[in-house]
Amino acid sequence: MRSGRIQSCTSCSASSSSTFPHPPCLSSASRHCKFPLLLSPGALSLSQRVSRNCLVPRYSSGWSQTQFSFSKQSNYKQLLSVGVGALVTSNTQGISTGTLIADEKIGVLLLNLGGPETLEDVQPFLFNLFADPDIIRLPRLFRFLQKPLAQFISVVRAPKSKEGYASIGGGSPLRQITNDQAEELRKSLWAKNVPAKVYVGMRYWHPFTEEAIEQIKRDGITKLVVLPLYPQFSISTSGSSLRLLESIFRDDEYLVNMQHTVIPSWYQREGYIKAMANLIEKELRKFDRPEKVIIFFSAHGVPLAYVEEAGDPYKAEMEECVDLIIEELEKRKIDNAYTLAYQSRVGPVEWLKPYTDETIVELGRKGVKSLLAVPISFVSEHIETLEEIDVEYKELALESGIENWGRVPALGCEPMFISDLADAVIESLPYVGAMAVSNLEARQSLVPLGSVEELLATYDSQRRELPPPVTVWEWGWTKSAETWNGRAAMLAVLVLLLLEVTTGEGFLHQWGVLPLFR
User: Fold this and answer.
1) What is the C-alpha end-to-end distance of the chain, expressed in Å?
2) Stretch among 32-46, 137-151, 153-167 having the lowest mean pLDDT
3) Could you tell me the CATH number of the domain that includes residue 172?
């Protein structure tokens, strides 16, 4: 299990700022908290949202006051704040699809992470992952080391990762599940009189985004809706896929002329929120005393610097998503305590807190006996749910004194969820190829839309490199020690690479990563 010092939790707080690159939709619903509200220095709250039953409070590190640049209209940022705090309901009745698709060929591109389908795929999949500069952001001076470093990390991590994939059947089910979601979405769109084709583009494994784009061109698609299968936007997930699309679009004359729009996030849509609440309600009934169960939302983490330095809206969107689900449960008279934590951190840098593993231990110390894990940032089963949550975190919970463990399944092809995604696509069709500003002026209920270029100009426009963590040296297996161990490892890697380049000998040359020369 991961090691690290448990942080002291004394408050329930939500981190926000006066400047957001995307509407965080912070709820104004006030709740009674078991802990006093504390905001870190400089943190500005758009709403005094206090989590009523939040047993383990959220961490607030404050949002940086970075000024974001926008490529087109100066009032784009203000327009993006439309609908803050609102649940987005499906509204397709007033849309006449006949005129939208008369002579058009409609395509929907689903974007996802991808995963190795066999154990032999694990190492090359990891290489593709760590070779992405949106996953590991090296200083500009060291960008040439991106692929050698990715090769080194993938080779080192592959044996452990293979063990995890072996424990869930020898590979990730993500591709098959995503294909099933694409087929169900296609059926739903056709049932709603939108004869669209649906494509799957994975970022790090087959079918790659490039493969999906080639099929889109062969099919002669003229209007494309890009739909990342990440409910909340992050520059490391949706943002990375959009950057890849940007580079593909820029170099292809057909794609330059093809009209498209992007639905960057959809965590606040009513269908998604109700589908999640349905699954939670169903799993709670399996406990002997459902009212005593703590609802444990576990989201995939991102480095803290992505939020504080690069303007990633992920944390704000995640917190609002949890609030909306809790509000929906309250309407059903489900008043359980809950908390939100972040999993899957790697490397020496600080990630979003609280960490899932540390929070589980803390809940055990507080005497919690029943826990229901909710994989909030995942809509498909994969390694983080099937192995990390179902095996590692369940084992940790039982060791920590938690006696009753449950887990909400990922949405997969849940009908309400798929139908609402279809509605989101239909609602976006009138604005394919239109400016994002006119989209918002015309339909304020829509999740903000825009072209790939507009969205990338809004999110993380300067693509800042991650700052080094600032901690004090400590010896042992503490977080600070891990940080310094990581720095030492990075230094060792750089020295080895320097020797490889200067001598022309070493394991990277033997593997063919670097050319052989003397």
Assistant:
1) 44
2) 32-46
3) 3.40.50.1400
The backbone torsions φ and ψ at residue 244, rounded to the nearest 5 degrees and listed phi first, read -65, -45
435 and 348 share a domain? no
Question: Are residue 257 and residue 293 in the same domain, yes or no?
Answer: no
The better pLDDT of the pair 309, 97 is held by: 309
Are the C-beta atoms of residues 321 and 26 closer than 8 Å to each other?
A: no
Starting at the edge strand that comes first in sequence, how are the strands of the sheet with 223-228 ordered? 197-202, 106-112, 223-228, 259-262
Q: Tens of pLDDT along 452-494? A: 666 666 655 555 444 443 333 333 343 334 444 555 566 667 7
**Local structure of residue 60 (DSSP, 8 states):** -
- Could you tell me if 302 and 217 lie in one domain? no
252 within domain boundaries: yes
Is 50 exceeded by the pLDDT of residue 386? yes
Which single residue is written with the structure tokens 């503490």?
Answer: 478
**pLDDT above 70 as % of the chain:** 66
Same domain, 204 and 344: no
- What tokens appear for 467 in the block? 């700052």
pLDDT tier at 450, thresholds 50, 70, 90: low
- 87 in a structural domain: no
Identify the domain containing residue 202 by its residue range.
106-267+416-460
Are 115 and 263 in a shared domain? yes
* Mean pLDDT value across residues 365-390: 96
Cα distance between residue 272 and residue 278, in whole Å? 10
Q: How far apart are CA 97 and CA 105, in angstroms?
A: 12
> Do 230 and 304 belong together in one domain?
no
Q: Which residues contact 343 (CB under 8 A, 6 or more apart)?
A: 298, 299, 300, 301, 355, 356, 357, 384, 388, 389, 393
- 335 within some domain: yes
User: Residues 448, 263: contact at Cβ < 8 Å?
Assistant: no
Tally of domains in the chain: 2
Whether 181 and 251 map to the same domain: the answer is yes
- Residue ranges of the alpha helices (H) in 106-208? 122-130, 146-167, 174-191
In a domain, 311, yes or no: yes
Lowest mean pLDDT: which of 234-243, 322-331, 367-376, 437-446?
A: 437-446
Stronger pLDDT, 255 or 85, i.e. the higher one: 255
DSSP 143: G
How many Cβ atoms from other residues are within 10 Å of residue 119's Cβ? 15
Residue 145 and residue 246 in one domain:
yes
